[in-house]
Amino acid sequence: MLTSIAGRAVVVTGASKGIGKGIARVFARHGARVMVVSRTLAEAQACAAELGNGARACAADVSDWAACQAMAAATVEAFGGIDILCANAGVFPQTKIESMDPAEWDEVMATNLKGSFLTVKACLPHLKKSDQARVVLTSSITGPITGFPGWTHYGASKAGQLGFMRTACIELANFGITINAVLPGNIVTEGLADLGADYLETMAASIPLKRLGSVDDVGNAALFLASAEAAYITGQTIVVDGGQVQPESLEALNA
Ligand code: NAP
User: Has residue 97 been placed in a domain?
Assistant: First the structure.
């Protein structure tokens, strides 16, 4: 049993659906007050209403510095401060190098990598005032550990988040703030479903635990990293993938 995080003020970006919504739901279930952030206000509001427990909503594009500042200000106005930032917003268009428009590369980097930097920077002045401040990034196994055709930009952005984290953890430690990352494998979300039934079926078969992950699986890992019990853990990663990256071959998987 972790020490209660009831009453803590949490910002979750990309929380209107998918993994972000799962993270938001786990925190709200444990009594935290959650600011649900996405670019589409109506969807963020619908999610906040579903979460209850005083959850609020705000529209922000994490690749936009002014929007990130407004997001942080709205959270402070609503909850009086920020204790936990879950920088989760991300996009994963799948395009091979030969056909990728350079603008698509920039868009993925702007949301996934620069967005992590901008949201941390915008929340930092407020996190500094919290006595138990936490940052949890949503990275991925794709990039830091594995590769998949069509995701050169995505993999680079997700590996880049960890490079950002390893230096940020030293800077943030000066303020008593920890920063860690969850690395989901294949988690059932609206975004993943768009990749098609064949993809989902083949993926599930390649995972030792023989199922895709749930958004709660990721939310629970984020909750631990945000807990009092994780106070001495910073600059680290937790892979949440049902063992997907472990088998060294198909033979190992099926032996
Ligand atoms: P998803 O279902 O497509 O949801 C993405 C969320 O992010 C939505 O709320 C979306 O709302 C928001 N968003 C997208 N771009 C944004 C921006 N520029 N500013 C603010 N919000 C933005 O995606 P998901 O599968 O849950 O993925 C969430 C995170 O987990 C991503 O960082 C992804 O890389 C990571 N991840 C996912 C998986 C997986 O299997 N699903 C695996 C590994 C890592 P709007 O479009 O309204 O803004």
Answer: yes
